[in-house]
Structure formats: structure tokens, C-alpha cells
Amino acid sequence: MKNDRFLRACRREPVDATPVWMMRQAGRYMPEYRALRSKHSMLEACRTPALAAEVTMQPLRLGMDAAILFSDILLPLEPMGAAFDFAKGEGPVIFSPIADQTGVDRLRVFEPEDGLGYVLETIRILKKELEVPLIGFAGAPFTLASYLIEGGKTATFAKTKRLMYEHPEAWHSVMGKLSEVVRRLLRKQIEAGADAIQLFDSWVGQLSADDYRLYVQPHVAHILQDIETCGVPVIHFGTGTYHLLEAQREAGGTVIGLDWRTPIGAGWAKVGADRAVQGNLDPTVLLAPRPIALQHAEHVLAQAASRPGHIFNLGHGILPETPVVTVEAVVDFVHCASAR
Ligand code: CP3
After folding, report:
1. What's this model's pTM, rounded to 2 decimal places?
2. Could you say which of 4, 5, 29, 72 is catalytic?
3. Does ligand 1 come within 6 angstroms of the Cβ of 159?
């Protein structure tokens, strides 16, 4: 591996410059991604290792210090027995959402080599090609459960929370199945060669800290306490989580994700000096003229104050309308402005 500053920062070791990568860095803002998607559906691209490997590498021309596997957090739902598709303009659609214990009982806990062999094969291909670390990932149980129960995207999480409050046994049973699937999948991704892992709990900020501890934390801990024994950095990510950072830290993660609503200094104080942090540029800042985007990037670096253990990222995924030149300019700027 030619460039290991991302892994060094995850371990809070000194770096020559702050490492940078961006969530959803392979995606619709890139012309080469759109060209590939005009010939293949999203699911086809995920399920064909040569294509998924190609897309994973596309953003590396912009100077990123890590590659993230091209895949999706929803893919494990299909081998569990909950088929879905990405509908144009609507996002994911789960064909038969889970409503009760009977639905939960039908879900299968599968072996990753059987149900998601193509994901592991993509990692094996990438490991032969990459000069930067490869980040594997999975969705966290709350975020996956929300898609499984709502059937798609939601503003209120009403069905999800209703099942949680009204039928706590069914809730813990679906969360138990999801967390065991995710634990097995992440272990196999590491065995296949992933150099780090990110757990995406994108929507968990919807819960109060008390509810998080009661309904979610044990399941996330089931995953992370095990994965942390594998010896690779584990990034624990969520959005809108300022009030949850202590509880997320307890659940696990060597690196904790912060979004733009959390000032890095205050967030890091909650996360603790024994953890690294990742974040936290607002992705919409990349839609502003370049000098303004760079000003905001500079502010992120100033807050992190060159402390060992900061990985520069967005606070959430890059938006499809983002200009490629702005992404490239921010990556260059972070490297130059943070050079030690
Ligand atoms: O970060 C990366 O570049 C790696 C690949 C990746 C994708 N999805 C590719 C993708 C990762 C890590 C994800 C994670 C993911 N997927 C999350 C958690 C992170 C987050 O953004 O909160 C969630 C909630 C999903 C579920 C999902 N997948 C949704 C809601 C959508 C539709 C969103 C949209 O903008 O249309 C997807 C589709 C998806 N996953 C795309 C990509 C590049 C867009 C597919 C396309 O139309 O080409």
C-alpha cells in the first residue's frame, strides 16, 4: 500500500497531512459513474464484481486517501428474504415490509459467502489493484430496520418506532437478526481484505438517548465488540447524533463520525480522546462557489486543530449535483492546508 495516512489517522498516529475521503464518493456526480449506470442498473453494478470494483476506483483520480467499496447497505436484505429494488427517483422500495413477529420469523440469518459472495469477490479484486486502503461497510441494525419496516424512505419513522414501542419483543428479535447478519458480513469483509470498516447508522439520530440505550445500543455493541477484535479500524457513523455520542462511543468504534451540526471540538470531547473522529463538512457546501467551499473546509481543519486522529470527510453523503472540480479542489486544499 503506497498511502496509509487514512489508517494512521484512524489509529491516532502522526500523519504527513490530514487524510480525506467522502461518503458516496463513487456516484452520480461523476460523469464516468453516470456513463456506467446508463448501461447497468444500480443492483447490476453492485452484483457484478468487475463493475463494482471499477466504480470503487473511479473517485481515486480526485486524490482520495481511501477507497470505499461500491455496494449498498440494503443488499443483505435480499438474502434475508426481503427483496427490494431502487425505483427511479424514489430511492429504495422493499416489496413486503415487515409488520410484526410473523414477518420477523420469516427473515433468514444467512452466511455471507452464500448470500453475498459477490461483495466478498469485489473486495478480493480490489485488494490486487488498490494503492490506498479499502473501507468495507454495512448498515447498522436501526437504519436497516427502518427500511425493512417502512418499506422505503420516511420522514417520521412512524412505523419503525411504533413497532419498537408497541412490540418490543418483535423489535429486539428483528434487531437481533439484523445485527447477527451484519456481524458475520463485516467479519467476512475483513477476511476478504477490507482494511477498515464503517458501520452506517445514518438515521439513528431520530431516537432519544434513553431510547437508543434501550432499543439499539445492545445490538450495535453485539456487532462492534466482536468486529473490534479483528484488528482493523472501525468507524461508527450516524447523523444528527450530538445527543448520542457518549452512548455510541460505549457501543463501540475506534473512529466516531460527526456531522456538520456537531462542532468537532465539542463532539470530540464527548467521544473521548482515546477515539479518532471523522467529519464533518456539510455536503451542500460543495454546491457553493469554490472559494466558499474552501473556507468551510478550512474551518473544519481549524476545529480539528491538527490533533492526531482526524479524518476529513463530509457529514453525510455527497449530493449528485456536486461539481467534480469542487470535490477535487477540496481534497487538494485539505492536503495542502494540513501538511505538517
Ligand atoms: O459511499 C460510497 O461511495 C460507497 C457506496 C455506498 C452507496 N450507498 C452507493 C449508492 C454506500 C456506503 C451506501 C450506503 C447507504 N445506502 C446508506 C447509508 C449512508 C447514507 O447515505 O445515509 C443508505 C441509507 C443507503 C440506502 C440507499 N441506497 C438509498 C436511500 C439510495 C437512494 C438514494 C438516492 O440518492 O437515490 C441508495 C442508492 C445508492 N446507493 C446510490 C449509490 C451511488 C445511487 C444509485 C444510483 O441511482 O446510481
Report:
1. 0.97
2. 72
3. no
